[in-house]
């Protein structure tokens, strides 16, 4: 893939902000409950591809405007102007998230419905407000969340996940945490502070090691135990050879903070 740039691009369905090694992608269609139309999905995919390319971006935060985090797919598919290029062979958002190999934190201020679960279940972290709710209501429309299942059953217990999608009933943040759908929940007025703490902490950690580790995590996920162990043994060897490991060990021995930019 050629080098991507944000210069001159107009993001109509999202807002992109980069600060202190953190890219924030904000879903920005509050009047449409931040439903995913083609323009928004394209902009998210482009932003993720750019973040994967840029070494200076260590963490991605996905947030949203309005009272709803995301209502899933926009069934009306209203036309939205955007000059963000469509990437050739662009992956589904969930695949882009799993293959970015950088921390992705969802900041969930409101309800998550249907296809929005693709984003939440394939991020590395999900922090929600206490008031948020989560649902897969497709069964009530005669539909089934087929693609959501790939990520859902990697974070949620099987029987809990099946009940969740078979009956289509919403769950609150407390239950979502119990079932592994989110990491934690806080009062809404504490959400910004908590997500800032987590994203800054993740951005302060060894970036190349983080990428190596997350890539290994994703690769071993599809292997049997007997296949995963030798693969992971190889990755340990690669990790010890890396500049991050050398700097981290040296800093530990010298009793100082590591400088990952060296």
Number of strands: 10
Helix segment tally? 10
Q: Which CATH top level class of the largest domain fits?
A: Alpha Beta
Major beta sheet, strand line-up: 1-2-3-5-7-10
User: CA-to-CA gap between the ends?
Assistant: 27 Å
Q: Helix/strand/pairing class, anyone?
A: alpha/beta
Q: Please, what is the CATH homologous superfamily of the largest domain?
A: 2-enoyl-CoA Hydratase, Chain A, domain 1
| Helical residue percent band | 25-40%
Instruction: Note the overall shape.
Output: globular
**How large is the radius of gyration?**
19 Å
What is the helix/strand order? EEHEEHEEHEEHHEHEHHHH
CATH topology of the largest domain: 2-enoyl-CoA Hydratase, Chain A, domain 1
Major β-sheet, in short?
6 strands, mixed
CATH architecture of the largest domain: Alpha-Beta Complex
Mean pLDDT, nearest integer? 93
Please tell me the total number of domains. 2
Unreliable stretches, pLDDT < 50, 5 or more residues? none
Q: Per DSSP, what share of the residues sits in E-state strands of 2 or more residues?
A: 15-25%
